[in-house]
Amino acid sequence: MAKSDTLGQFEQLVLAAILSLREDAYGVSIHAKAEELARPKSVSLGAIYVTLDRLEDKGLVSSRLSDPTPERGGRAKRRYQLEALGERALQESAVTAKRIWDETEAIWGKKIWGKRAPGRKAQA
Amino acid sequence: MPGEPPRILERIIGLFIPPSRREDVLGDLRERYANLGKYMMEAVRTTPMVIFGAIRRTTDPQLFLMEALLLYISFLSALWYVDRSMLDDQWGLLRPAIPAAIAIAILLLYDAWSPPEKQAPLRSPLRVVIALGSACLCQIAVLPREAAMFGAGIAALLVSTVRMLFPPGAALPQKAGGPAREASAAVSANAKRLWDAVVVLVALAILAVSLRYGGMPLMMVATIAVVVFQARRSWKE
User: Fold this and answer.
1) d(CA B88, CA B140)
2) Distance, CA of B131 to chain centre
3) Among A31, A44, A73, whose Cβ lies nearest the Cβ of B45?
4) Do A26 and B28 count as a contact with CB atoms less than 8 A apart?
5) Which residue did the predictor score with more confidence, A118 or B208?
6) Which residues share a beta bridge with B29?
7) Which of B87, B100, B172, B197 supports an S-S bond with B71, CB 3.0-4.6 Å?
8) Average pLDDT value over all residues in chain A
9) Quick check: A73 and B23 CB within 8 A?
10) Nearest to B23 by CA among A63, A24, A86
11) Is B53 touching A (CB cutoff 8 A)?
12) φ, ψ of residue A64 in degrees (nearest 5)
């Protein structure tokens, strides 16, 4: 079994967006979902394309062009889906994130949900 | 209903987007259309990223470095032969880098616009010649005409040979579910033979010119090396 690549934070975001969108994962919908997940940071459509290309090259996702639709001026959507390698990489990332979450929650407790970010608190 | 972008504007933006992504990116931009200003802004922000992505996908870093080095050495040796005193200037060594940089940039964009897996076997040398021709035209004020011509000739020979030996895209990562690059980028035996003949003829012509003008050591060595290499390969096959 091949060792999966380590994912960057933005790659995790895009993979999570594809996972949650299932059959409806294409440029615009992935961008909308990624923006929702990355709040309050904004995400550019171009960054989504570059990341999707990179994930496809790594074999974590695959894409295919769907039938053209009139609302897109007769142009096709490029639909993405998670490959087995991508699912495993995302799973590993989620497990690591959970461990980090458990660790920080043990120290900061419920404060992490407060209005002030931990970094700011430390500076203050 | 927010309306739709002007068709002519879509076509202009489409020219800047590599064909491999044109369909879906233009569709996505149209789907997000709210007003003309926002559409333009989004297109201006997105297109460079799409171009960058296409270049990243179609460029093999090792091949890129090899080509850049060959281009620079070709123009440097040509300038050394034609007017050695120009190399003694403060920016002398930079002069041959300008046509080399222009040619490599054109090659990068050319590859991104027509991916290697969709190339006809002899397209690669053809695009090298076009890139070098454009580079020569762009930097006529920087190098003497003879140096530009000699440099472009030897660079065309060397870079095309490198591209035939290591087809661009063959070493790039395989797309999930995509066609095997190695299989689609393979060069047919007839095309190889034809290219071998072209390389030998051009190499001999350069050799004859360099002998006529009193010898150009680097070019002669490079040309002889290419001829010997090609002959050895043809004999093996």
Assistant:
1) 19
2) 6
3) A44
4) yes
5) B208
6) none
7) B100
8) 83
9) no
10) A63
11) yes
12) -150, 150
What's the confidence (pLDDT) of residue B226?
67
Residue B119 near residue B58, CB atoms below 8 Å: no
Q: Which fold has domain A9-123?
A: Arc Repressor Mutant, subunit A (1.10.10)
- Residue written as token pair 């980090």: A100
Question: Phi/psi at A53 (nearest 5 deg)?
Answer: -60, -45
Q: What pLDDT is recorded for position A15?
A: 94
Which tops the pLDDT comparison, B145 or B215? Answer: B145
Residue B47: list chain A partners with CB under 8 A: 46
Per-residue pLDDT reduced to its tens digit, B3-13:
788 889 989 99
Tell me the range of A95-99, B113-117, B142-146 where mean pLDDT is highest.
Answer: A95-99
**Three-class SS of residue B74?**
helix
- Please list, in sequence order, all residues whose beta carbon lies within 8 angstroms of the beta carbon of residue B172, skipping any fewer than 6 positions away: A57, B57, B58, B60, B116, B181
Residue pairs between chains A and B whose CB atoms are closer than 8 Å: 90
Q: In chain B, pLDDT over 90 holds for what percent of residues?
A: 9
User: Which pLDDT score, from 0 to 100, does residue A62 have?
Assistant: 92
Torsion of CA A53, B114, B117, A56, to 10 degrees: 0
| Local structure of A69: helix, strand or coil | strand
So what's the ipTM on this one? Answer: 0.79
Within 8 A of B45 by CB-CB distance, chain A residues are 44-46
Tell if the CB–CB gap between B27 and A75 is shorter than 8 Å.
yes
**Cα-based torsion angle of the residue sequence A19, A25, A29, A33 in order, rounded to the nearest 10 degrees:** 10
Nearest to A45 among B23, B27, B42 (CB): B42
Instruction: Quote the pLDDT of residue A120.
Output: 46
pLDDT of residue B61: 82
Q: CB within 8 A of B95, min separation 6: which ones? A: B75, B79, B86, B87, B89, B142, B143
